[in-house]
């Protein structure tokens, strides 16, 4: 009840800026916010490091004619001003103070999670929707997300085998996704168990060596990140150490296409859920 009252208050507070979402010219320095806005039917006009987001997600998120305004810590403020934004979302309070004269600002970030991962993802969607008077749309997209996750959960027959989600940093180290990660939220919602139970960072990852990765049990699923596709895959395939390590693994290895941002929001969570379910039900491209 308190949450709904707070959301209602926020809607009233920002109503003067949100008479119609189609008239909003929104700028954001956060990819999780950008894809959430798109899901709510509002395409930002400008996003930091947009090219990098497209490389990661394969243009899966419709971002229309949004422009790239440079690096997240140092966006091109002159370019932002030229587009006369009506609202600016970010997660850098110092930067937002400098640009607050351009338009109303909101210092919002999904990470680190304040509740369990899935609940945090849903609440983040509502938090953004509340500031733009889009709560009805948030209700719709989150309900659809819950329905989709229920369907995917039913498709997975083997829920007993733990999964181990990894992303290579280079040919000797990998990030493993555990508690506090977006991917953990999906794993939980699908009724699966994460094989990785070690401490993680604020975004839910642990840095491990490839020998530690190979020794950890469960079904190993490797995210084919842009860096992996560009250089790391070839190095691993030519690495005698890696070949020996994976030959000693008892668990299966599968490669996951990366058409989602692992530190994203609900849209990325749903695309990862699709990818993971396909890998676990169709066999994926495992070994």
Can you offer a commentary on this structure?
45% of the residues lie in helices and 14% in strands. It has 287 residues and is of the alpha/beta class. The chain folds into 2 domains: 145 residues, Rossmann fold; 125 residues, 3-Layer(aba) Sandwich (Rossmann fold), CATH 3.40.50. The strands form 2 sheets. It has a 5-stranded parallel sheet, with helices on both faces. Helix 2 links the parallel strand 1 and strand 2. Helix 1 packs parallel to helix 6. The N terminus is likely disordered. One of its GO terms (biological process) is iron coordination entity transport. It holds the Pfam family Peripla_BP_2. It is found in: Cell envelope. Belongs to the bacterial solute-binding protein 8 family. InterPro entries: ABC_transptr_periplasmic_BD, Bact_iron-sidero_bind.
Summary keywords:
287 residues; alpha/beta; Rossmann fold; 2 domains; five-stranded parallel β-sheet; five-stranded mixed β-sheet; 10 strands; globular; disordered N terminus; ion transport; iron transport; Bact_iron-sidero_bind; ABC_transptr_periplasmic_BD
Kindly provide the radius of gyration, computed on alpha-carbon positions and rounded to a whole number of angstroms.
20 Å
Number of strands: 10
* CATH topology grouping of the largest domain: Rossmann fold
Name the overall outline. globular
Q: N-to-C terminal Cα separation, in Å? A: 49 Å
Helix content: 40-55%
Report the portion of residues in β strands.
5-15%
Q: Please identify which CATH superfamily of the largest domain we are dealing with.
A: Nitrogenase molybdenum iron protein domain
């Amino acid at each position: 009840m308190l949450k709904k009252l707070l959301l209602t208050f926020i809607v009233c507070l920002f109503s003067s800026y949100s008479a119609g979402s189609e008239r909003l010219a929104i700028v954001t320095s956060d990819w999780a916010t950008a894809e959430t806005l798109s899901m709510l039917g509002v395409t930002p006009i400008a996003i930091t490091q947009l090219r990098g987001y497209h490389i990661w997600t394969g243009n899966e998120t419709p971002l229309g004619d949004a422009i790239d305004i440079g690096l997240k810590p140092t966006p091109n403020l002159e370019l932002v001003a030229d587009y006369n934004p009506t609202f600016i979302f970010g997660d850098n309070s110092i930067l937002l103070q400098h640009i607050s004269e351009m338009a109303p600002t909101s210092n919002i970030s999904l990470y680190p999670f304040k509740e369990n991962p899935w609940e945090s993802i849903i609440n983040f969607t509502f938090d953004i929707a509340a500031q733009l008077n889009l709560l009805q749309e948030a209700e719709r997209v989150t309900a659809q997300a819950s329905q989709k996750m229920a369907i995917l959960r039913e498709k997975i027959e083997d829920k007993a085998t733990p999964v181990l989600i990894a992303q290579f940093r280079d040919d000797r180290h990998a990030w493993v996704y555990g508690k506090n990660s977006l991917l953990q939220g999906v794993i939980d919602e699908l009724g699966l168990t994460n094989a990785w139970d070690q401490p993680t960072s604020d975004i839910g990852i642990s840095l491990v060596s490839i020998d530690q990765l190979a020794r950890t049990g469960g079904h190993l699923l490797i995210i084919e990140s842009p860096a992996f596709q560009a250089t790391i895959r070839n190095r691993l395939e030519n690495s005698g150490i890696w070949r020996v390590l994976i030959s000693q693994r008892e668990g299966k290895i599968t490669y996951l296409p990366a058409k989602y941002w692992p530190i994203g929001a609900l849209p990325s969570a749903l695309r990862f859920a699709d990818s993971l379910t396909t890998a676990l039900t169709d066999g994926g491209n495992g070994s």
